[in-house]
Amino acid sequence: MREDDTRPGSAQPDTRPGGSPSVPAAAAPEQTAAHRHTVGESRAPQSGPAARRRDRIPLPVVLTACLLFLLVTMTAGVAIGSVPLSPAQVWHVVAASVAGHAPNSVAGIIVWQIRLPRVLLAAVVGAALTTAGSVVQVLVRNALADPFLLGVSSGASVGATAVLLLGAFASLGQWAISVGSVLGALGAMAAVFLVSRTGSSLSPTQLILCGVVMSALFESVTSFLIFRGNPQATQTVLFWLLGSFGLASWNQLPIPAAALAAAMIYLMAQGRTLNALAMGSEPAASLGVDVHRLRRNLFVVTSLMAGVAVAVSGIIGFVGLVVPHIVRLMVGSDHRRVLPTGALFGASFMVLGDLLARTIVAPQEMPIGVITAFIGAPTLIVLIRRRPYLYGATQ
Amino acid sequence: MSLRLDELSVDIGGRRIVDAIDLAVGDQEFAGLVGPNGSGKSTILKAIYRVHRPSAGRVLLDGTDLLSLSHRDTARRIAVVTQESASEFDFTVREMVMIGRTPHKRSFERDADADHDIVDHAMERVGCGRLASRRFNTLSGGEKQLVLVARALAQQADHLILDEPTNHLDIRHQVEILEIVSGLGVTVLAALHDLSLAALFCQAIHVLRAGRLVAAGPPAAVLTPETILQAYGAEVLVIDHPDTGTPHLIPRRIQPGTGGHSAGGTAPAESARPGRSS
Question: Which of A179, B49, B237, B240 could make an SS bond with B267 (beta carbons 3.0 to 4.6 A apart)?
C-alpha cells in the first residue's frame, strides 16, 4: 500500500518499489563532522538536497497552487450570482476600489458592497476553522476531532439563542448575536478547561470527554430556550445554527481576520513542536516540549479562533474535520506544511461552499452546513479508502 | 556525561511509586534497569525525561540539577526511545527522524543542510536509510523501533534513555537495537524486561522491587537466583552464556514435579551447554 507522490517538473520518479532513493549523487558530499556518532560500516549516503525533498511535493509549489485556486474560487464567488459578472469586471472594480475611487456602477456596488465582503468572510472563516481543526486533532491526538469538539459551538449556540429569543444585548444592535455567541463560546471554553484540568495538565481523553459532555449540556440549554421561545424566532435560530454568510459586511471582517492572522503566526512558530506533540505527550516531553503549557495555549488559541468564526457565520460543520484530512493526504503531516496549506485550501473550500449555497437553489439560499457536508463527506470517504493504513487498518 | 539519581522519589496520585533511589550511570556506561512490572522502572525514566516531577531528591546531569535546565536544554542532553506509533498522522521516515532535531531549532527556523546531514547519518547508522521515503505507519514493529532510535540519534544527546525498547520485537531486532545503542559511545540507562539480554549488553544492572533498589552491580553479581527470587518472586536457573560468560536465566515451572528443586542452588554452569566457552 504505497503510493508515489506525483511530482511536477524536475524531480524524476526514480523511487523504486522498495522506496530506496537510487542514483547516488556522483560525488556525494560527505557528512559534516559536526556530530559525534561516526560510523565505519555505513554505506555512502545517497542524498543531495534534491533527493531529500523528493518524498513530498515542495511546499512553495503547493502553496502557489493553493493560492491560485483560492484566487480562482474567490473571483468565481464574486462573479457568479443573480447578476452575473465577468472576472474582468470583478477585478476592475476591486482594483479601482482599492485605489480609492470605487465605481458607482451597479457592478461596482454588487462587487464591493455585497459579494466581496461575503467572499472574504467565507475565506477567513474557512481558513480559521481548518486551522483550528488541524490543531485540535493534534491537541487531542484524535483524527475525529474538530474545532467544535471542545464545546465552543454549543456554547456559542446558547449565547446566540439567548440573543435571538430573549433579546439579550439588544442595545448592541447588529452586533448582539456576535457578542452573544462569543460570550457563549468563551463561557463554554472556560467551563471545559476548568472541568478537564487535573493539576496543570490537560490530558487528551479528559479533554474529549469533558468537551462532549459539556457540549451536550449546552445543547440542552439551547433546546430549552427554543422550546420556550416563539415559533418565528425559533426559525431564525435554526437558520443561524446551520450557518450562513448571508449577513456578511465589511465591518464584520477585521476581528476574524486579525484573530486568524495572530493565531497563524503563533501556530506557525510552533510548527516543530506540533509535530513533536503529534507523537504523544511523553515523546514530546522527551523532545524538549513543555507539553502542559503548549496544550493550554493550543486550547485557548483554537477555541478563540473557532469562537470568532462561529460569531460571524454560525455553526458550519465538517470543514474543520474534513479539510485537515484532505490537506494531510496532500502534503503529509508536517505541520509546517499543513498549516499554511490548510489555511489556503480551507478558505477556497468555504468560498466554493458558499457559492454553491447561494446559487444551487437560487433565489433561495441553502444553509452552507448542508453543502460542506455534501462535499466533505464523500471526499473524505474516497481519501480514507485510498490510504487505509492511516486510519487503523492493518495491511 | 554522567547521570546520577540522588535520593529520587516520585509520587503519583498520592502514592509513592519510586522511593529514595540512589543510582549513578558513568560516562558512556550502558546501565540496565530491571524489575517486575510495576516496580517503578518507567516512572524513574519519566522523572529523568521530565514527564514526572520528583517529589523528593534530584536528577543530576554532570552534577547539575535537571530542574534547573529548560525543557529544551534537557532534550539536547537526553534522548529517549520508547514504544510508540503515530498512527493518526502520516509522517515519512525522514520526517520522523527530523523531528529529533526539535530541541535544536528555534521557532520558524528551517531545516538546514546540516540538519539533513545529521538525519541522513542517523538513518544510515541504524540501517534504515533505505526506508527514508516510506510512511512510518507502514513499517513493521522492528523497523519502527529502528527509526525511533535514529530519531534519538538525530537529537544528538549524550545520554540515551531506553524504556523497554525491545518489547514485541523478534530476536534479531532485539539484539540489533541494543547492539547499535551500545556502539554509540553515549551514556545509556535502559529499562529492560529480558534479563539475559540485559546481561549481554549492560555493564551494570540495577534491580528494582516496589520502587526501591534491591541490588546493583555487574550482571554476574546481580543476576543470581537469590536476587531474582527476592525481586520477582520467580525461581530461575542461571547458567553462563557460552560466548560471553554473562549470566543467562532459565525460568523454572512453579508446579512441583516438573523438574527443579527448591530455590537457592546455583546451577551447574559448565555442563549446561557445550560449545566455545571463553
Answer: B237
